UniProtKB/TrEMBL annotation:
Species: Coccidioides immitis H538.4
InterPro entries cross-referenced by the UniProt entry: Rua1_C (IPR028012)
Every Transcription regulator Rua1 C-terminal domain range: 18-119
Protein name: Transcription regulator Rua1 C-terminal domain-containing protein
Amino acid sequence: MMPSDPTMVPHEQDLRFENDLYTPKWVRGHGNKREGWCGICKPGRWLVLKNSAFWYDKSFTHGISAVTGQAFAAPKEIRRTEGSANIWEGLCGNCGQWVGLVTSKKKGTTWFRHAYKCHNHYKPDDSHKRPRDNEEPRGISTVEAYSKSPQCVATSKPESVALGYVNKESLNGPQGLSSIQSMLSII
């Protein structure tokens, strides 16, 4: 079935770098009507890129950082809150706060919103990025610039926590869901 608007025919797009979980592999449309496919949503769906619908879905529904292209870190520990067996909290490995994992309206958004604000946003090394048409070469990569910055306190990237995807083929499949999402599905 072909759409009546030829600009809405989906086409494959290169990822920014290997194992980029954020960038939509399939896009359609142009300008304000440009959409990206979220295959993690069940069923999959098209989300507008221009108005941040795609960013919101990936960041706060699925817990994937737009900056790093990777899943946010999982809580170090999980516990039930005192006085309520139905409310769960996760211990943030960055700031040491106990943060609610779910809200009554949307599962996962509370933890993912905290992770978005609190967790370090390391960008992947620019050398892995796909080349863009008519782009001038850059001097040094983001990682190199960050490591040479006098304000830099941390000298290494944080260790990834068990939130990764099973394999490259499952990047947009249900097997690729994070451990937080798996846990939230049973809460």
